[in-house]
Amino acid sequence: MSKDDERPFRSARWYQAEDLRSFGHRSRTLQTGLRREEFMGKPVIGIINTWSDLNPCHMHLRTRAEEVKRGVWLAGGYPVELPAMSLGEVFMRPTTMLYRNLLAIETEELLRSNPIDGAVLLGGCDKTLPAMVMGALSADVPAIVMPAGPMLRGTYAGRHLGSGTDVWKYWADRKAGLVSDEAWKQMEEGIARSFGTCMTMGTASTMAITLEAMGLTLPGAATIPAADSRHSRLAAETGARIVALTREHASCRAIVTPEAVHNAIVALSAIGGSTNAVIHLLAIAGRAAVELPLRRFDEVARQVGVLVDIRPTGQYLMEDLYEAGGSAALMSRILPLLHKEARTVAGARIGDIYQSAPVWREDVIRTVADPVAPPGSIAVLSGNLAPNGAVMKPAAADQRLLRHRGRALVFDSYDEMIKTLEQPDLEVSADDVLVLRNAGPVGGPGMPEWGMLPLPVKLLKLGVRDMLRISDARMSGTSYGACVLHVAPESAVGGPLAAVQWGDYISIDVEARQLTLEVAEGEIRRRLAARPAAPPKRFAGGYTESFVQHVQQADQGCDFDYLVAPRRAYEPEIH
User: Fold this and answer.
1) Using CA atoms, how far apart are residues 136 and 343, in angstroms rounded to an integer?
2) Do 283 and 254 share a structural domain?
3) Which candidate among 97, 321, 472, 554 keeps its CA 20 to 30 Å from the CA of 282?
4) 200 and 63, same structural domain?
5) 495 located within any domain
6) What count of other Cβ atoms lies within 10 Å of the Cβ of residue 501?
7) What global pTM score does this model have?
């Protein structure tokens, strides 16, 4: 037994002192019906569960929590379930991104304020996993991510449907008069056939895979379908493994190293993953005190082709990826690009774990020599319109728009944009550039997923399916198109996007990573200076008020400025 293994558990401060307070802790635990030998001297494992009736992606997490508990009990630990904010992507308004930091705070304080020795982070829907990882890093406890898993394939008229990606596609066809009411109804009934997260390469699966590459899940965990019995077994295995990690006092901060963050970015590039992952990985790195400039995403992506043929970049769905060998097979393909010595929660180094993982379907997981799309799946643009950077997903765009010049159609609000683009006589061409501002972290507030700006109905009826679109918003990982996102600094805090006027010309050259407002610098400064001072937004919710005062810009990860590492660590007093 190592010296680390001999250290007392953190929970001993609650349970093992001979004082009145510990009497209360022990007696109240006995109140639950447990025997002393079931909790005394054992590692206490907190299961942070983001189950909710309003989050269908997490419908099964009540059951998975029980299965995690089973693994914890069998490994000699004491499991306690701690419910946390669910962040259901579909129903929450204005955006779950507004509340990611709140869940991170809740996770941190749940772990810190209670007698918790290690944690299982049980979630999946877009913002839950990064939020819980951020919180666990700040709490500095051993932790394992247990992804919710993707749902089964959608079906309609003998075809497979992918959540998000096919919704946008068929909605455009519906606006063009090509999809009937009955067909639309059948799609609604067939696209989401089980619990679990989006079965396209949306933000949920993107984050699960990047966190596996970071070493925070058990091998292969990221791609097991939610409805597969192997997902239940994964939950029990995760419960057992966190007990071992806790006995080793292996904090998740020891896992999230610069090398682990690099591995996550390699995986992000290889899957053609969600642009949202850029913001989340920046925030995770910030909590782990890992330096990560935005340009690093571009540098890594230029070295890695897109290897998985999954919508929205490709044609298949997450169930196909799992059948092809899953995340383990993907890791084996990108292993030469990874830091092989990086540690994982499984105990072994990442190079040893994935060295011989087989690929069963070469059409789904391609080779480095035969990628689905060339290197550069994430492009970081700069220029006078985005001094601190903007993000784009070139592989999901109409390639003609990667080098383009067009007239700007500018909108100050989402509602204004929708109303204008619905006009049948709108003066617009496919070469124009749609610009939406006031949709960033402060302007949204919370940076809603408005970045896949809808195309004008007039052009949809003419068969147009992509235009250059620019905003300080985000877009869903299931979205696609020539969308420039995360423009920083955002317009609401005086970024150059606020200076764009209707009719200005904007040019883009993705190969050169340039985004340019074709207006003289002096004129841009004059316009920004002449802008009337916007009255400060007042929000009924105290949290939202705090959010807009403390949120960082997109190029920094949108965390709160006071939560980024290094921070003074503290333990609650027990009186």
Assistant:
1) 17
2) yes
3) 321
4) yes
5) yes
6) 12
7) 0.96
**Residue ranges of E strands in 67-175:** 78-83, 118-123, 143-147, 154-156, 159-161
Task: Verify that 207 and 229 share a domain, yes or no.
Answer: yes
Q: At what angle do helices 97-113 and 542-550 cross, to 10 degrees?
A: 100
- Residue 87 and residue 227 share a domain: yes
* C-alpha–C-alpha distance, residues 201 and 147, integer Å: 14
Taking a C-beta distance cutoff of 8 angstroms, is the pair 38, 74 a contact?
no
The amino acid present at 564, given as its one-letter code, is V
Regarding whether 121 and 207 lie in a shared domain, the answer is yes
Q: Which residue has the tokens 């420039």?
A: 484
**In this structure, what CATH number is given to the domain that contains residue 519?**
3.50.30.80
Q: What span, in angstroms and rounded, lies between the C-alpha atoms of 494 and 531?
A: 9
Closest CA to 152 of 200, 222, 88, 89: 200
Of 88, 84, 144, 143, the C-alpha closest to 117 is: 143
Q: For each of the chain's 575 residues, which pLDDT tens digit applies?
A: 455 567 899 999 999 999 999 999 999 999 999 999 999 999 999 999 999 999 999 999 999 999 999 999 999 999 999 999 999 999 999 999 999 999 999 999 999 999 999 999 999 999 999 999 999 999 999 999 999 999 999 999 999 999 999 999 999 999 999 999 999 999 999 999 999 999 999 999 999 999 999 999 999 999 999 999 999 999 999 999 999 999 999 999 999 999 999 999 999 999 999 999 999 999 999 999 999 999 999 999 999 999 999 999 999 999 999 999 999 999 999 999 999 999 999 999 999 999 999 999 999 999 999 999 999 999 999 999 999 999 999 999 999 999 999 999 999 999 999 999 999 999 999 999 999 999 999 999 999 999 999 999 999 999 999 999 999 999 999 999 999 999 999 999 999 999 999 999 999 999 999 999 999 999 999 999 998 876 667 776 789 999 999 999 999 999 999 999 886 556 777 65
147 & 167 share domain: no
Is-contact 112 103, C-beta < 8 A? no
Q: Which domain holds residue 508?
A: 379-530
Pair 305, 372: CB distance under 8 Å: yes
Q: Is residue 539 part of a domain?
A: no
Task: Copy the structure tokens of residue 534.
Answer: 């916007």
| Domain assignment of residue 303, yes or no | yes
Q: How far is CA 347 from CA 202, 215, 334, 344, 401, in A?
A: 29, 9, 20, 6, 46
Residue corresponding to tokens 């020795």: 117
310: CATH:
3.40.50.2300
Residue 27 lies in a domain: no
